[in-house]
Amino acid sequence: xxxxxxxxxxxxxxxxxxxxxxxxxxxxxxxxxxxxxxxxxxxxxxxxxxxxxxxxxxxxxxxxxxxxxxxxxxxxxxxxxxxxxxxxxxxxxxxxxxxxxxxxxxxxxxxxxxxxxxxxxxxxxxxxxxxxxxxxxxxxxxxxxxxxxxxxxxxxxxxxxxxxxxxxxxxxxxxxxxxxxxxxxxxxxxxxxxxxxxxxxxxxxxxxxxxxxxxxxxxxxxxxxxxxxxxxxxxxxxxxxxxxxxxxxxxxxxxxxxxxxxxxxxxxxxx
Length: 271
Known about the structure:
Largest sheet: 5 strands, parallel
Helix content: 25-40%
Radius of gyration: 18 Å
Low-confidence stretches: none
């Protein structure tokens, strides 16, 4: 794998820790041929990790400025990460990532990626501690993410397992988990067949494998799906994090090629 590109990244306009310009400079320093920053789309309810409506406008303007400044050094693209529950974004974007961060249960919005403690709390409060039903409801939402967000690629498909390394919360080989996960994958792949391999949780919480888990990658390959490597970077240091390992995992699951984005559409390269 020689091509380094990344299109899932965040900045101080949402929950990233560095400005867009700092992120672009870091991408150049890493040798990225192409790079995109994907702001979290505003949500219909209060959050502290998404762009505001005003911030969304400012983000797009700043990315336009950076394209003019750095466009001769790498291909720079402006993206948005739409959640299943986010309204239509106001900005004009080069690409869209479709993701799910919440389970809606009894009128409450349960975040799946805040912390292990939050997952345990919500599973206890709303599911009597049954993590398999909790995960089932997550994947039922994921099953509808493609028509809801109209994405160019699917983000962190099995985010519900973020804090489950070593099976701390549930057994990812249990049919009560694999069944809903595979059903959701089949539903999503009918509309959007490009899934990211996301190394972000490997960097931030020490997860041992990227999203999606290997059994899901194998199922995606069997269905003719495709992959794009992403580091879901919230700081410059994580851009391209452990991509070589992710590429080797992809090859072990049957993939020979990956996709990258360009202003004129997706292109293929050999892993």
